[in-house]
Amino acid sequence: KRPAGAPDKDLARKVQKVGVIGAGLMASQFALLFARKLRVPVVITDLDQARVDAGIAHIRGEIEKMHEKGRLSRDAANQVTALVTGTTDRKQFADCDWVIEAVFEELGVKQQVFGEFEPILREDAILATNTSSLSVDEIGAHLAHPERLVGFHFFNPVAVMPLIEVVQAARTDDETLATAMTTAKQLGKSAVITADRPGFVVNRLLAKVMGEAARALDEGTPLPVVERALGPIGLPMGPFELIDLVGWKVAAHVQDTMVGAFPDRFYASENLHALAEIAEPLDKNRHGKVTDLSKAARKRIRV
Ligand code: 3HC
Predict the structure, then answer these.
(1) FRET partner for 261 with CA separation of 20 to 30 A, picked from 7, 50, 52, 136?
(2) ipTM score of the complex?
(3) Minimum CA distance residue for ligand 1 atom 27
(4) Which domains are assigned to the chain?
């Protein structure tokens, strides 16, 4: 018997071609995962050729690392490399049956992107959003077919983190949900269905930790002290190293969403925004580990 809320997996469709909108850190990581695990063509796009090229370069670098570590044979590495292509020509998305976006974490931007793409796409293409905390229903508010939109939330680093949150919006239909669950499993991840609520499940918890870490900063505890103090409680990374990994702007946006939704339960930190402003231009290598960012950012605002 199926667990309550889980769709009938016979409804799932087999994904044959993936379109990825956005070529940034998250998008390029999961574009690679789709190609590696599903072995289907993956096309990625972004605002301009430079962003597309950076995404493709990152993906190729990761494929080579996997080959060097013995995780992909030369043949497999070549095959996966050939499967991922970059373009600024949206028409190349016309035959994709799974289209996922990871553009800037702002409602209007995501609505606009889907609005621009929907007329180009197949009528039966499934649309997925990698939003961290925005409402999937609101993202799909202006779609002609919102029933084919689902949240599909990856975690950083995508290759390593075992979970995908599959977000069932009010209008997501069973076929879309079943395809999302089956696809997540084919990607080698465990998948949980979450309701379309701010922060879903994971960021609801994470925003608490980040918020309290930021509150400690605001109250004058130096950043390295907060970072070190939280190590022994068993987190794999300190809160600020984790923000370095996911991106300061993303973290600040998640915090804003949670504070907006639950002002009495989440903490709005001015330092978090100040750090995000500073971190942005410092993050020269959009796809690398930004290991020194906390240190550099900290010097600027003396935390
Ligand atoms: N890309 C690909 N692989 C990576 C990677 C990356 N960015 N970072 C680490 N890895 C791989 C390494 O290659 C290594 O693989 P190997 O065993 O084959 O060599 C493996 O992960 C372990 O890495 P390390 O030995 O270098 O380091 P650690 O053991 O310290 O693990 C970590 C690194 C897995 C990143 C660990 O510190 C961790 O789990 N951190 C917490 C990450 C986390 O909480 N992510 C969720 C963030 S929230 C989010 O993304 C949602 C958004 O909405 C905000």
Answers:
(1) 7
(2) 0.95
(3) 236
(4) 9-195 (3.40.50.720), 202-297 (1.10.1040.50)
